[in-house]
Design goal:
The chain is of the alpha+beta class and 161 residues long. The chain has a single domain, classed as Beta-Lactamase (2-Layer Sandwich), CATH 3.30.450.40. It is built from four helices and six strands, in the order H-H-E-E-E-H-E-E-E-H. The protein has a six-stranded antiparallel beta sheet, sandwiched between helices. Strand 1 and strand 2 form a beta hairpin.
């Protein structure tokens, strides 16, 4: 397991292509889910300096806050509520250029301007989401979606982890 992170500058694609193998190195060989989610959020936050990056996991028909980096966050989110709950319900990645224009947006931080939420799907079921917020309007695009989905696909959600 690598415990260093090399921050690079360059195009968004170059940054992700450098970061993804580093994230794999951070979580390779570690079976604890919380530890892996914590390191993933730290790596993403450190590299991109986004306002908020973190996970919510499905527990008892709610999304429950899991490891994150950034300001204090909402603890529980119902299915279909806000961007996270909507991504959970639809089982699709959502990119929101202006959170103020998203119906039912949950404003955990008034600084958040745009958001991307990537559902974590295992065995055809959404078991959580990766949520990322930016202070800039229109910050996220299809490249973020593609690479964040790749990062999510590499996380093991084995029973007992």
């Amino acid at each position: 397991m690598a415990e260093d992170l090399k921050i690079i500058e360059g195009s968004k694609e170059q940054i992700y292509l450098s970061l993804i193998p580093q994230i794999k190195g951070l979580i390779d060989g570690e079976s604890d889910l919380v530890a892996n989610l914590a390191n993933i959020t730290a790596a993403l936050k450190e590299q991109f300096n986004w306002l908020w990056v973190g996970f919510y996991l499905v527990k008892n028909d709610e999304l429950v806050l899991a490891p994150f980096q950034g300001p204090v966050a909402c603890t529980r989110i119902k299915k279909g509520r806000g961007v996270c709950g909507t991504a959970w319900q639809s089982a699709t990645t959502l990119i929101v250029d202006d959170v103020e224009k998203f119906p039912g947006h949950i404003a955990c931080s008034s600084l958040s301007r745009s958001e991307i939420v990537v559902p974590i799907i295992r065995n055809n079921e959404v078991i959580g989401v990766l949520d990322v917020d930016s202070e800039s309007l229109g910050h996220f695009d299809e490249a973020d979606q593609r690479f964040l989905e790749e990062i999510i696909s590499g996380i093991s959600f084995a029973p007992g982890s």
